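[audit] Reproducing an earlier prediction to check determinism. Same input, same settings, fresh worker. If the tokens differ from the archived copy the diff job will pick it up downstream; this log only records the rerun itself.
[audit] input (266 residues):
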Amino acid sequence: MKLDFDHLWLGTMAWAFDTWVGNFYPPKTKSGDYLPAYAMQFPAVEIDSTFYAIPRESVVMGWAAKTPDEFLFCPKFPQLITHEKRLHYAELETDAFLTTMRLLGPKLGPLVLQFDYTFQADQLPALTGYLDSLPKDLRYAVEVRHRSWLKEDLYQMLGARNVALVMSDLYYMPRKPVRTANFAYIRLLGDRRQIPRDMGEIVQDRTGDLVFWRDQILTLRDEGYEVFAFANNKYEGHAPTTVRRLAGLLEEGVTPHEEVERVAHQ
């Protein structure tokens, strides 16, 4: 059954996993049918592959053609822009990326700028200038992975531009549900040292953390935010199951105390 929550877009951070055949995709599903099978279950997906290279236009148009009208894609900016060029002299690459992503039309959701640990808060002027250079008709989310960023000057800069600060669950970063845009973007990332690959099943039960994010999502929706939330395989071992577990918590509507007590007595 497809997940259906108003103003909430749940999904995984990619869809092309052979290990999902039989436990998420129907048995014997071909790789070319993964995306339509995915879109029958979840309403949105984050595109991880765009981090590594800008896809061909025909590929992007194929994605759009294989998914329902209401489906959304949330692409990651290429690492050439964020990691290699560090936002400097990246005008041509940025234009090529955004032009290609626009082929998704109304299925294009927020675009994610993911930075690594070495991109620190002294780069605030570069980030500010780069965001100011982007088209204003698209939505953007920024994920930082160094604690030096987590202070008011970043929040105010993003807020002035309606750019979301990604609310990430990454093992070495504080969980900061800071609102800087009229939408919220959550990434459940986990620790690849603990779960180095897709395991095909849950191998690390993080119910307590999912309860935390369930409560954040409900609060955000009550406050009028549109919410995007995506999980990867490193979070619990199998991203589709994590997303379904989160959806189940949202549907149950139990309090955090009640849920923790239930898990403790299982």
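[audit] rerun output stored. Observation attached for the diff report: DSSP finds ten helices and nine strands in the chain.
[audit] end
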